């Protein structure tokens, strides 16, 4: 029963006490979804799955102007599931097959200028790094940590772009030899 990171996050938010779906969405978006807020449908479909799996229960139902508003509470099984999820390390993603690498090799195979592709990508990375650095400067601690994570990944990409540019002649020979 895989409920995914969003399901686990919503479960974790319920540990502080029962909440309605719209409260969960607001808390998620505020803490984790600044760049990609949840859709209400995603919240309610996830809550339905968590309910079906016994990880949450309906703590109360209130009539409203529209449909009834359910208040969800985490179950003991839900708490155990969150604990297990938090204790399980994430699988590192080595990015062994990147789209950028594919573009560089295809450019070489089709006699296009791979250096132009690398230059354009470098410019795009630097642009995004400026945006993230500005956001980090203006943000709270959580936003600063999120931006740092993204900036470190972009810096690693930039190192790869520089290394690839320096080895482009050798890569062109290797690609054409295959």
Can you give a write-up of this model?
- By secondary structure, this protein is mainly α.
- The protein folds into two domains: 4-87, Winged helix-like DNA-binding domain superfamily/Winged helix DNA-binding domain (Arc Repressor Mutant, subunit A, Orthogonal Bundle); 99-177.
- The chain has helices at residues 4-14, 21-31, 40-52, 76-87, 99-109, 114-138, 141-166, 168-177; strands spanning 19-20, 56-62, 69-74.
- Strands 1-3-2 form a three-stranded antiparallel sheet.
- Strand 2 (56-62) and strand 3 form a beta hairpin.
- Helix 1 (4-14) crosses helix 2 (21-31) and helix 5 runs antiparallel to helix 6.
- The longest helix is centred in the C-terminal third of the chain and has 26 residues, at 141-166.
- The two termini are 44 Å apart.
């Amino acid at each position: 029963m895989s409920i995914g990171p969003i399901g686990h996050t919503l479960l974790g938010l319920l540990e502080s006490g029962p909440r309605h779906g719209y409260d969960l969405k607001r808390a998620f978006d505020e803490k984790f979804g600044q760049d990609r807020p949840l859709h209400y449908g995603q919240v309610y479909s996830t809550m339905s799955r968590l309910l079906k799996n016994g990880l949450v229960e309906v703590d109360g139902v209130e009539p409203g102007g529209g449909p009834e508003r359910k208040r969800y509470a985490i179950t003991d099984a839900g708490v155990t599931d969150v604990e297990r999820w938090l204790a399980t390390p994430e699988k590192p993603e080595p990015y062994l097959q990147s789209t950028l690498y594919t573009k560089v090799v295809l450019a070489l195979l089709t006699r296009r200028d791979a250096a132009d592709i690398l230059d354009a990508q470098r410019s795009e990375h630097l642009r995004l790094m400026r945006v993230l650095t500005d956001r980090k400067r203006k943000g709270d601690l959580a936003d600063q940590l999120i931006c740092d994570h993204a900036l470190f990944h972009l810096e690693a990409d930039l190192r790869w772009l520089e290394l690839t540019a320096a080895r482009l002649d050798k890569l062109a020979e290797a690609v054409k030899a295959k």
